Amino acid sequence: GGKPSLESEKVVTTWGLSACFGRSVSYCALWYLCHLLCRRRCVSVGAEDTCVLHPSAWCPGFCGTFLGIAFLGIGLWAWNEKFSVFLGIIFFLELTAGVLAFVFKDWIKDQLYFFINNNIRAYRDDIDLQNLIDFTQEYWQCCGAFGADDWNLNIYFNCTDSNASRERCGVPFSCCTKDPAEDVINTQCGYDARQKPEVDQQIVIYTKGCVPQFEKWLQDNLTIVAGIFIGIALLQIFGICLAQNLVSDIEAVRASW
Asked: Which residue windows are transmembrane per the record (predicted)?
C-alpha cells in the first residue's frame, strides 16, 4: 500500500514510453513489409533470371532489427544486468561491421556495382525503382554505375541492332545535364546520346558513374559523415547507460518491496 515511490513511477513511465514507441515502430515495419511484398519484382533479362529486391526492403530491415532488440530487451529485463550486456554486444557487432566495411571496401564497391546494374536492367519494370534511379542520377550528377555505357544492360537502351526501341543507344532523362533556362524537363534529352563521340556526350549527359561520384562525395564530406556516425555511436552508448540506470532503479524498487 501507500504512494508509489519515485523509482517505481520512473520504471513504469519508462516501460510505458518504450511500449508505445515499440508499437509505433512495429506498425511502420509491418506497413513497409506489406509494401515490399506487393512491389517485389522478378524480371527476366535474356537467359538470366534476376530477382530485384525493392529498395523499400531497407526500411523494414532497420525497423525489424530495432523491433527485435525492443522485444528482446523487454524479455531481458527479467535478467536485469544482462540487458546492458546485450546492448553492448549489439554495439560491438555494429562497430565490427564498420571496421569490416572499411577493410573490404573494394568488395563492397563491387557489390554496389552489381546492385546498381541489376536495377538498371529492371529500370522500366517498377515505377518506384525507376524514380529512385532517376533521383540518384540527378542528385549525384551521374549516369550508370561506372559510366553511361552501363545502360547497355537495359533492353530498351542497349545499342544492339535488334533493339527497335526509340530509346536505343540512349540514356534516361535523369542522365542529362540540366539547362538552368529550361523550366520543363525534356524527357527525350537522352535519345541517341551514346551514339555521339565522348566529347559531345559530355555536353548533353553526365558521363561519370554513380559509384565514383558517391566515393567523391564521401571524400568531400568525410568530416560530416564521420560526425554522423560518431553521433549515432554516442547515442547508443547513452542508451546503454540509460539501460544500466534503469536496471539499478528496478533493483532499488525490488529492494524496497
From this structure: 12-34, 55-79, 85-104, 222-247
* Whether the Cβ atoms of residue 67 and residue 22 lie closer than 8 Å to each other: yes
Q: Which of 91, 94, 116, 117 is nearest to 238 (CA)?
A: 91
Q: Sign of the C-alpha dihedral, residues 24, 27, 31, 34?
A: positive
What ranges make up the beta strands (E) of 38-171?
Answer: 41-45, 48-52
Tell which residue, 154, 150, 143, has the closest CA to residue 213.
143
65-122 confidence digits (pLDDT tens): 555 555 555 554 545 556 667 777 878 887 888 888 888 888 888 888 888 888 999 9
Assign domain 104-220 to its CATH architecture.
Orthogonal Bundle (1.10)
Q: What is the pTM of this model?
A: 0.62
Give the other-Cβ count within 10 Å of 201's Cβ.
Answer: 20
Mark residue 178 as left, alpha or beta (left: phi above 0; alpha: psi -120 to 50; beta: remaining): beta
Grid cell at residue 28? 511502420
